[in-house]
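Input record, target 12 of the design panel.
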C-alpha cells in the first residue's frame, strides 16, 4: 500500500468513526462508504443492498446512478451475485463475468452492457445476522487482491455497525426496526431527488449532489433535508438556488 493510499484509507476510517461517535445520518454515511469503496479499492463502482425485516433486499446506497440501476435490476430479476452473497452469507468473487453467464443469465448481460467485467460481493453481517451485501464492480477482468478484499470487508463491517447499534444486535425486533428506518429514509431521499431532478432539469446524480451540498453547508441531516423537500416545508427552488450560488462562488 502506497503512502498516499494508506493515508486515504486511514482518513476514510477516521471519518466513519467520527460519524459513529458524534451522531450520523445513516443514508449519507452509507453513500459516502460506497464512494470510498470505489475510490480506495481496485474497482470502479460499489453498491450496497440492505434487507428488510422479511428478508427482502433493497438498494440502500450506490456510488453512481448507473450502479444503483444495475442493483435494482438484479433485485427485480432475482438474479445476481449480491443476492447469492446475502442468502449464503459468504463472499462471492467473480474475476470474469463472462464465465458466469449460465449462473446469472440475466444479470451478466446487464452488467456487461454498462461496462462491468468483474464483480465481488461481500456480506454485511452483525454477529450471525446477515443484513445485506456490498457489491464491488470492476470494468476489467481480474480478481481483487487479498488486501483489497480485506479492506472491502472491513468497510462492509463498519456499514453493519452503522446500521445497527451493537447494544441492539441481540434483539431481532430492534434490529428490524432500525433497518426499516434506514430503508424508509432512503425512499424519502429518492423522492426528494426526483423532485429536484424534475424541477431543475437535473439527472439523479446531480440532484443528490444538490441535496447533500445544502445539508452539509447548513449543518442539517441529509434525510431531514430530503423529508422537508418532500413535504414542501423546504422549497426545492431554495436548494437549486443554493447550488447555483455554490457553483458561482467556486468558479
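The sequence produced for target 12 reads:
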Amino acid at each position: 500500500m502506497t503512502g498516499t493510499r494508506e493515508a486515504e484509507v486511514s482518513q476514510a476510517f477516521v471519518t466513519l468513526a467520527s460519524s459513529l461517535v458524534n451522531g450520523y445520518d445513516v443514508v449519507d454515511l452509507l453513500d459516502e462508504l460506497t464512494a470510498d469503496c470505489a475510490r480506495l479499492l481496485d474497482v470502479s463502482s460499489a453498491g450496497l443492498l440492505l434487507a428488510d425485516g422479511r428478508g427482502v433486499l433493497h438498494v440502500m446506497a450506490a456510488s453512481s446512478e448507473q450502479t444503483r440501476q444495475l442493483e435494482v435490476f438484479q433485485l427485480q430479476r432475482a438474479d445476481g451475485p449480491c443476492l447469492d452473497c446475502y442468502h449464503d452469507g459468504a463472499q462471492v468473487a467473480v474475476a470474469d463475468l463472462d464465465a458466469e453467464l449460465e449462473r446469472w443469465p440475466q444479470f451478466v448481460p446487464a452488467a456487461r452492457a454498462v461496462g462491468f467485467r468483474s464483480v465481488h460481493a461481500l456480506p454485511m453481517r452483525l454477529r450471525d445476522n446477515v443484513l445485506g451485501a456490498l457489491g464491488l464492480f470492476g470494468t476489467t477482468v481480474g480478481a481483487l487482491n487479498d488486501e483489497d478484499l480485506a479492506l472491502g470487508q472491513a468497510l462492509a463491517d463498519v456499514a453493519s455497525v452503522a446500521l445497527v447499534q451493537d447494544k441492539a444486535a441481540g434483539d431481532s425486533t430492534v434490529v428490524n426496526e432500525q433497518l426499516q428506518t434506514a430503508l424508509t429514509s432512503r425512499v424519502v431521499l429518492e423522492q426528494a431527488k426526483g423532485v429536484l431532478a424534475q424541477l431543475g432539469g437535473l439527472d439523479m446524480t446531480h440532484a443528490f449532489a444538490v441535496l447533500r451540498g445544502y445539508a452539509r453547508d447548513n449543518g442539517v441531516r441529509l434525510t431531514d433535508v430530503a423529508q422537508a423537500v418532500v413535504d414542501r416545508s423546504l422549497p426545492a427552488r431554495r436548494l437549486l438556488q443554493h447550488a447555483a450560488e455554490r457553483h458561482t462562488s467556486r468558479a
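The first strand starts at residue 45 and ends at 51.
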